[in-house]
Amino acid sequence: MTDKLSININIDGRIYPLTIVREEEEKYRKAAKILNDIILQYRKKYANHDSKDFLSMTAFQFVLKNLEMEEKADDSPFIEEIKKLNEELGDYLSID
């Protein structure tokens, strides 16, 4: 049975109650800290903008980074190479 935990996460001065798996608490708190740090960087750089702008730019930054990571994680060349090696191995093993 998974142990649940209720926590409050502060993002840009607003509190969000969450129920999470206890073992993931550190990950959630670290994510909130990273998010708040990035928002603070935008807030310092663009002081005359609205909080929604900071949140939007932070979300955009994370989505862009996620897309870059997905592109890097393209495993199709490896799958093709494995298929090729599998065929070669099959041909080799079928020789009498």
From TrEMBL:
GO biological process: cell division
A Pfam family of this chain: ZapA
InterPro entries per UniProt: Cell_div_ZapA-like, Cell_div_ZapA-like_sf
Domain of life: Bacteria
Keywords on record: Cell cycle, Cell division
Name of the featured protein: Cell division protein ZapA
Organism: Sunxiuqinia elliptica
